[in-house]
């Protein structure tokens, strides 16, 4: 697997002022041309604006509108379109140049006019980093701070290594990136000098460290609280529980002894005293059994009484019915109708003759029965009266029997109460003092149980605190092991470090770095030392050259080795600052040699077949680089962003 490839293919700005630049693989130059022979005219023509557009399109978060690079002309700008090729996949990123915090729109495929009306994926500026890292097959990693927090190496952070902005790139390698340790993290990750396993360990260590900090703070607060409230240590709490258990066991033994003494007192008195209590107890039980039998008999008698009352009431009802039937028969048989009771017409003799032929004289219907015909099964009132008298006699006998049983039950209850009182008095005379002792001992047992419960509660709190301590100790052991692993993982890969040093040394020699003697790269800071001196102290005129050469070395390493460094560089006018014209020309000659060597190495491919890209803005140019100039800009007539005709 080769190092990831990112190619800037096209930059389009829409608005009142605009631009449309296309780039290809290999070397691409945007040249600032002097106007009227004035060198200062190249300062404000748009070289840095190109880098700002690239950074903006690649998801850089702007601090504020006021500090936005295009703030003075923001009203004349609308939309940025950045067409890129990430590991062979062409994407077009759309981002507003006015609403700088608005979400970006990402589309597959190249930029074409009217692409804004096609469907796109809305991506927040925060999520742009993950999208680009995924497209470039760069893992998402983080580094741990001293406090244990994880700081992700986002794409905008990594972008500082291959997009060199004149304000924060040529004063030093990854200038203004804080803390300084972060520079080594970024370079080590991108170059592969730092193993990827290191970041996996850092993730685990961060999680453990944060948990240790939280748990340690919680443990200290709980320990202080328990100490303030008199909670003993675990050993003292265990001793307290043992003492409370022993005291409770002794109290229960004493209680059982008193209970045994009470049983002995109730069964082992003198013969006369023992017989008296036993007799009273037997009499009481016998009376209770007899009273229970009498209660059952009384219930049966009450049920019988209720049944007889129901029978008596039924017979009285039957007697009233019989009397009514007899009276109604007498009345109806004595009535002769002269007129119809319904239509009030006279009943004729002819109609009366009908009854001789078994027909009703009124309705002329066949007679089956009439209302004045007495029923065949009508009971006689004399029989009903006899039954009522017999039932009343039986009911009186039941009343008398129930009253007798009730009186006997009351007598038994009175006798039961009397014997029970005597039994209580006899028992109190011999058992009451022991019972008092038993009650007092029961109170003692309850107190000992409460003390044991408190001791167990304290033991539980002490155990919980000890469990926290054990968990904290375990986490600290895991943290120590991970810190050992991290120290091992942080060790640079010497072969990769040496490869970078050799490439850097060859580039310094190619640009004819002044007074160059030796080169080494510090294994911890990954910063170069030239002639045993840190590169920023080699001289005011040479620091920028050493910085650009270092990034070129990272690019060359990415071409030769499998790294996470993109095979791309954007160099923003390296002559700004301390890079003098002589060093600048040597750097330009090296870039020309790099381009020609790359093309000659594979004669079957043109520039589109190159595996790297460099976009350079410069005001100086050598003849060898003129074929690679993509745009010439100048102030004020030919700015990078200008009104198009």
Helical segment tally?
12
Low-pLDDT ranges: 603-607
In terms of DSSP E residues, the strand content is: 5-15%
Average pLDDT for all residues: 85
Q: Helix share of residues?
A: 40-55%
The 3D shape can be described as elongated
Structural class: alpha/beta
Would you kindly provide a written description of the structure presented here, covering whatever features stand out?
- α6 runs antiparallel to α9 (381-489).
- Among the domains are: 6-180 and 566-573 and 584-633, 3-Layer(aba) Sandwich (Rossmann fold), CATH 3.40.50; 338-371, no CATH class.
- The protein has 645 residues and is of the alpha/beta class.
- It is elongated and about 155 Å long.
- The model is unreliable at 603-607 (pLDDT under 50).
- It is built from 12 helices and 16 strands.
- Helices cover 52% and strands 12% of the residues.
What order do the helices and strands come in, and which of them pair?
Blueprint: E1 6-15, E2 19-22, E3 26-32, H1 47-57, E4 77-86, E5 89-96, E6 104-108, E7 121-123, H2 125-135, E8 142-144, E9 150-152, H3 155-159, E10 163-164, H4 181-191, H5 197-228, H6 234-267, H7 271-333, H8 349-353, H9 381-489, H10 494-510, E11 519-521, E12 528-530, E13 533-534, H11 543-560, E14 568-572, H12 581-601, E15 613-618, E16 629-633
Parallel strand pairs: 3-15, 3-16, 10-14, 14-15
Antiparallel strand pairs: 1-2, 1-4, 4-5, 5-6, 6-7, 8-9, 11-12, 12-13
